[in-house]
């Protein structure tokens, strides 16, 4: 059994004992999303830790998007609840790359591929996607690639 899934289950039990409603609700939703992913498709299977991280990234993005939607809809309490859930999920994700690290990785990928101009964005992104693996949002990476290729 993947270690991350075990950790999520153990933390769920701890949060239930501590009566931490936000953490309990969030971990239940995350574990449900993982289970749904495991049973999706032709045959049930167990997800690896890397696949679980991808599910958690997707869930965190849903929370951020929902928080933005609630903010635009003038519902600050719901937005705050979604942000709190996103923070809980973020605790189980790999450390995010800072701007300098991301810039260095993009520069290395550009020099590796020899890409130049806007046409090279696809080549660089293809190389960058496995390297960042959940450590940076795809839109943020694409923006940095565009910035470096345009200059």
Q: What structural class is derived from the secondary structure elements?
A: mainly alpha
Radius of gyration: 18 Å
The name CATH uses for the topology of the largest domain is Hypothetical Protein Yqey, Chain: A, domain1
Give the second-level CATH assignment, the architecture of the largest domain: Orthogonal Bundle
The topology string of helices and strands comes to HHHHHHH
Helix content: over 70%
- Amount of beta strand: under 5%
Helical stretch count?
Answer: 7
**Major sheet summary line:** none
What is the domain tally? 2
Distance between termini? 47 Å
The CATH superfamily of the largest domain appears as Uncharacterised protein YqeY/AIM41, N-terminal domain
Mean pLDDT: 87
- Total E-strand runs: 0
| Overall geometry | globular
**Low-confidence sequence ranges:** none
CATH class of the largest domain: Mainly Alpha
Outline the structure in words.
It is a single chain. The protein has 151 residues and is mostly helical. The protein has 2 domains: 3-90, Uncharacterised protein YqeY/AIM41, N-terminal domain (Hypothetical Protein Yqey, Chain: A, domain1); 99-150, Arc Repressor Mutant, subunit A (Orthogonal Bundle). The protein contains 7 helices and no strands. It has helices at residues 3-17, 21-39, 49-72, 76-90, 99-113, 121-132, 138-150. Helix 2 packs across helix 4, helix 3 packs antiparallel against helix 4 (76-90) and helix 5 (99-113) packs across helix 6 (121-132). The radius of gyration is 18 Å and the shape is globular. The chain starts with a helix and ends with a helix. The mean pLDDT is 87.
């Amino acid at each position: 059994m993947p270690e991350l899934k075990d950790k999520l289950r153990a933390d769920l039990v701890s949060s239930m004992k501590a009566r931490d409603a936000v953490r309990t609700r969030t971990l239940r939703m995350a574990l449900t999303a993982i289970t749904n992913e495991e049973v999706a498709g032709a045959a049930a299977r167990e997800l690896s830790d890397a696949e679980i991280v991808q599910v958690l990234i997707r869930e965190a993005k849903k929370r951020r998007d929902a928080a933005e939607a609630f903010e635009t809809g003038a519902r600050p309490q719901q937005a705050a609840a979604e942000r709190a859930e996103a923070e809980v999920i973020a605790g189980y994700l790999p450390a995010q790359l800072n701007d300098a690290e991301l810039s260095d990785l993009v520069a290395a990928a550009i020099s590796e591929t020899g890409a130049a101009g806007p046409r090279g964005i696809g080549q660089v992104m293809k190389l960058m996607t496995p390297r960042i693996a959940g450590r940076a949002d795809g839109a943020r990476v694409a923006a940095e690639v565009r910035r470096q290729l345009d200059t």
